[in-house]
């Protein structure tokens, strides 16, 4: 780990410390790190509009306890990382979604997932790591696919969680789940925004495993840490303007484990299966009852899957 970086205790978790990392492309990322400095590193890449705290502390701790150094960070445009000013024209998101679903190209986003994958590659470098195991969730899994394809020297092995390669004609998100994600809060005050977050977390989460109190606490913590809806929209545009990753999947030579929840209605399991089918030698694991989240109930099993995958490939 780069000794020039100055770390301080994380205000959220006793076993992690935080720092700001300025990348060679000028982007500043807010990063948390936990575990022994000589243990192999796992880089966690989160999804659309999701701050680093969406990686549950319990998940990070189980990985640390099994002999890994864990790194989680806010992607550009979210949390405490750099915000990107869009100097381009206003884009028609609905029209772009239609084009995206049938495989037509979109243009005009302030940045693409390729830029976000470059951020991840530069972060691995700035942290002084030769390479890292990578787990990407949802949009973070898309970024991880690009990272493994375009920066193979940075990636030891790959874990993908409820993600997609966005090839044309994959199963569409269920309307209720998609609308919860793209709808606006009923009011712009703290209560309205927290209520909206609670609704999203409950709608996309694992049925029967969503803890109401935990969801409320998480929503409040995230809102008070950072609220930047522009970043969520711009990350969504990045997905729409990146398009299919199918051509990159075929180039991935890293050992890959794709994990998906059977109850994921935001990205139905067909998305994960398409990724596993397209990456040479990839394994696919379907977890019964899991949605588009990482509830405590599934964490011991989920972390065990990834740890076994990473350790068997060392």
From TrEMBL:
One of its GO terms (biological process) is glycerolipid catabolic process. Keywords: Hydrolase. The keyword Hydrolase applies. GO terms for molecular function: triacylglycerol lipase activity. Pfam families: Abhydrolase_1. InterPro entries: AB_hydrolase (IPR050471), AB_hydrolase_1 (IPR000073), AB_hydrolase_fold (IPR029058). Residues 40-293 form the AB hydrolase-1 domain. PANTHER family: AB HYDROLASE-1 DOMAIN-CONTAINING PROTEIN, HYDROLASE, ALPHA/BETA FOLD FAMILY PROTEIN. This is Alpha/beta fold hydrolase.
């Amino acid at each position: 780990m780069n000794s020039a970086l100055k770390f301080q205790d994380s205000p959220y978790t006793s076993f992690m410390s935080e720092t700001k990392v300025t990348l060679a492309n000028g982007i500043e990322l807010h990063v948390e790190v936990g575990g022994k400095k000589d243990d192999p590193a796992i880089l966690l890449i989160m999804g659309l509009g999701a701050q680093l705290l969406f990686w549950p502390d319990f998940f990070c701790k189980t990985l640390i306890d099994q002999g890994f150094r864990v790194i989680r960070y806010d992607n550009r445009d979210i949390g405490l990382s750099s915000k990107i000013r869009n100097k381009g024209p206003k884009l028609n998101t609905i029209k772009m979604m239609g084009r995206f679903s049938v495989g037509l190209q979109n243009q005009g986003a302030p940045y693409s997932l390729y830029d976000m994958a470059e951020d991840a590659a530069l972060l691995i470098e700035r942290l002084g790591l030769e390479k890292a195991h990578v787990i990407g969730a949802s949009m973070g899994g898309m970024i991880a696919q690009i990272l493994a394809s375009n920066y193979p020297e940075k990636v030891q092995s790959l874990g993908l969680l409820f993600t997609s390669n966005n090839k044309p004609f994959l199963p569409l998100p269920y309307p209720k789940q998609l609308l919860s994600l793209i709808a606006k809060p009923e009011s712009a005050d703290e209560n309205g925004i927290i209520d909206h977050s609670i609704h999203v977390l409950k709608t996309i989460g694992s049925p029967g495993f969503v803890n109401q109190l935990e969801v409320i606490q998480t929503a409040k913590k995230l809102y008070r840490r950072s609220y930047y809806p522009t970043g969520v929209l711009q990350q969504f545009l990045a997905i729409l303007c990146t398009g299919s990753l199918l051509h990159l999947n075929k180039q991935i030579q890293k050992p890959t484990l794709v994990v998906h929840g059977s109850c994921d209605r935001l990205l139905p399991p067909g998305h994960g299966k398409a990724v596993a089918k397209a990456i040479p030698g990839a394994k696919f694991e379907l977890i019964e009852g899991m949605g588009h989240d990482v509830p405590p109930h599934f964490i011991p099993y989920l972390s065990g899957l990834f740890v076994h995958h990473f350790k068997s490939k060392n």
